[in-house]
Amino acid sequence: MNSASSTATRAPHRPRSVNRIHPAVYAALGGMVFLSVFPLYWMFVVATTDSATAYSLPPHVLPGGNFFHLAGLVFEIVPFVQALLNSLFVATSIGVGQALLCALAGFAFAKLSFRGRNTLFLIVVLTMTVPAQLSVVPQYLIMSRLNWVDTLQALIVPGLVSAFGIFWMRQHIGNVINDELMNAARVDGATTWQIFWRIAFPLVRPAAMILGLFGFVNAWNDFLWPFIVLKSPERYTVQIAIKALQNNRDIDLGLAMSGSFLATLPLLVLFVFVGRRLVQGIMEGAFKG
Fold first, then answer.
1. What is the residue extent of each domain of the chain?
2. Concatenated DSSP letters for 169-192?
3. Mean of the per-residue pLDDT values for the chain?
4. pLDDT at 278
């Protein structure tokens, strides 16, 4: 009787929480965050001091007060404001173009039946295996024939569509858009373009926005193709303007890091406003793909 009463009065056993995260996981995540953020912080430290900071031992870990002086030199040496505007125009055009055109192509491959659809889609996928460097020479020859060398459209037009974007939107549209919905729209008299623009695209707009953001960032950071096709300083993008800050024999790291930090600021501001949406879109694609 006493054992029964003691058992009844004993506090109920609480199951161990299955969602408890081990401290080692936090330590590993903290280490990865540090490794990811430290290069940006070190760039800012060098940008606020001088080139000697990068070679000093022990290294400086605190920012200095020389940033505005070096930033002023950046704007004096190269037309950096114009380069920022050029990059903004090119990256925005490519981002919007990829969001619309890749969604349109993905809709065609996913929901329209036409001869050679699978073969064409296979060719599109195979182009992702070709290194981008191999397309530089034929692409430059095409731009030369069109008299587009040293123009911004030479940067915009080749980047309006990407094979990865077509593949991603085709997979996403195939999972989201039902054939019954399209058949119902056709019964109501909707054309193929109306079905895409009024039904399909609004449903896949978040994925298209994520694709556009990827296109914007890639176009903003692109160096090789703009370096080849652009000649005039007034048409430089930010990456080419940063290259123009460097001499042939030596590199002023403080000046170069100041230009790099100024070029990174727009991306940081963009990530602050759309970072959460970007992560949500990536996770959504990972679980639905």
1. 22-65, 79-288
2. HHHHHHHH--HHHHHHHHHTT--H
3. 85
4. 66
